[in-house]
Amino acid sequence: IERALNRDFARGPQEMDCGASAAIAEEPASKIGGTRVVAFFGGANAPGRTTIGVNVLAVLGTARRTVLVDLDTTGAAVAAHLRGVHPAWNLADVAVARPRSPAAWSQALEGRLQRVGGVSTSARVLCGLVRPQQREHLSTGFVEELIGCLADRFEHVLIDLGDEPLSDSSPEAAVAAAA
User: How do residues 141-177 score in pLDDT, each as one tens digit?
Assistant: First the structure.
């Protein structure tokens, strides 16, 4: 966490002790500016991704503009970890709005990026899908645009991906790979 606050990430993936992994997206500076994108992912039976994501959000959110996006398309659980957020105000609402301009993105995200508490005043969360049928609204293009839009607004973008295999050909794997 201290390294994140100081923007002193090492290049490449960082292994987490609990079996989950965090990957640091090394995008060109022109694309995401000074934003760090961190994805929490892992295979089945690699618990702790959501817990780590929520805790990193809480710590980073005390000092930096940070957002956690629940992109676990088969088991969104970020809202269950946080009190005071509304799981119904989620990623599906933004995807259905299909924003195309910066103003449309701002409007779609307003109200969907929820505060997580009084201590982490700069932390926001975008809850995940509450029903399996909402997956049809997600596409790789939407996910890429969403992360780019959030990178313009936040210093840290944290992504809870779940256990979808990145090499699979399922729609869930495509969303995870896009993230």
Answer: 999 999 999 999 999 999 998 776 666 777 777 888 8
In this prediction the pTM is 0.79
CA distance 38 to 48: 15
pLDDT in tens, 84-134: 888 889 999 999 999 999 999 999 999 899 988 777 888 999 999 988 888
* Rounded distance between C-alpha atoms, residue 19 and residue 32, angstroms: 28
Asked if pLDDT for residue 71 goes beyond 80, the answer is yes
Tokens of 29: 């500076």
Measured CA to CA in angstroms, residue 158 lies from 71, 132, 151, 154, 161 at distances of 10, 22, 10, 10, 10
Question: pLDDT above 70 covers what percent of the chain?
Answer: 78
Where helices occur in the chain by DSSP H, the ranges are 2-5, 29-32, 49-60, 78-81, 91-97, 102-109, 140-153, 171-178
3-state secondary structure 34-70: CCEEEEEECCCCCCCHHHHHHHHHHHHCCCCCEEEEE
Residue 155 neighbours by CB distance under 10 Å: 19
